[in-house]
Amino acid sequence: MIAKKVLLNELGKEQKKKGFVSKKKLKEIAKNVCLPESEVFSAATFYSFLSLEKRAKHIIQVCNCPSSHLHGSDRIMKYLEKKLKVKAGHATKNKLFFLSETSCVGLCDKAPAIIIDGKPYVKVNEKKIDKILRKLK
């Protein structure tokens, strides 16, 4: 249990530092926390906040939990796709934004919610999204 907490901490630090976790770094972390490389790789690919490749400067994750869905997360995703001219799971041509869906972010009482660069935004709508994006550009 302690090794897994250390593992997630190490993966998170590398993600924050570099914007992704390289395969070389996965091997190094596996050795440091005494876990098989396969388990480290599995953790790195399971969590949506981790990536094995550089995505973009800003990562936008739209919560797709049932509460967010009921409060319009599908509308929010379509709006972001149109506004950014990119489909979910891809980066904009200028590599400024990466757009994706994510499972529950624990903000069901404030849905719909999005996470941008690790920061939560709640009860989002088109107007609020426009304001946030202007600040990030």
CATH hierarchy class name of the largest domain: Alpha Beta
Q: Strand order, biggest sheet?
A: 2-3-1-4-5
Termini separation: 41 Å
CATH architecture of the largest domain: 3-Layer(aba) Sandwich
Low-confidence stretches: none
For the record, what is the CATH homologous superfamily label of the largest domain? Answer: Glutaredoxin
Mean pLDDT: 91
Strand content: 5-15%
Number of domains: 2
Radius of gyration: 16 Å
The total count of helices amounts to 6
| Strand tally | 5
- Helix and strand composition category: alpha+beta
Q: What profile does the largest beta sheet have?
A: 5 strands, mixed
In short:
With about 140 residues, the chain is α+β, with helices and mostly antiparallel strands.
Report on the structure:
This protein is of the alpha+beta class. It has two domains: 2-46; 58-136, Glutaredoxin, CATH 3.40.30.10. It contains six helices and five strands. The protein has helices at 2-18, 23-33, 37-46, 66-70, 73-84, 126-136, and strands at 58-63, 90-91, 97-102, 114-116, 119-121. Strand 4 (114-116) and strand 5 (119-121) form a beta hairpin. The relative contact order is 0.14. The mean pLDDT is 91.
Topology of this structure?
Layout: H1 2-18, H2 23-33, H3 37-46, E1 58-63, H4 66-70, H5 73-84, E2 90-91, E3 97-102, E4 114-116, E5 119-121, H6 126-136
Parallel strand pairs: 1-3
Antiparallel strand pairs: 1-4, 2-3, 4-5
Helix pairs in contact: 1-2, 2-3
Short descriptors:
single chain; alpha+beta; Glutaredoxin; globular
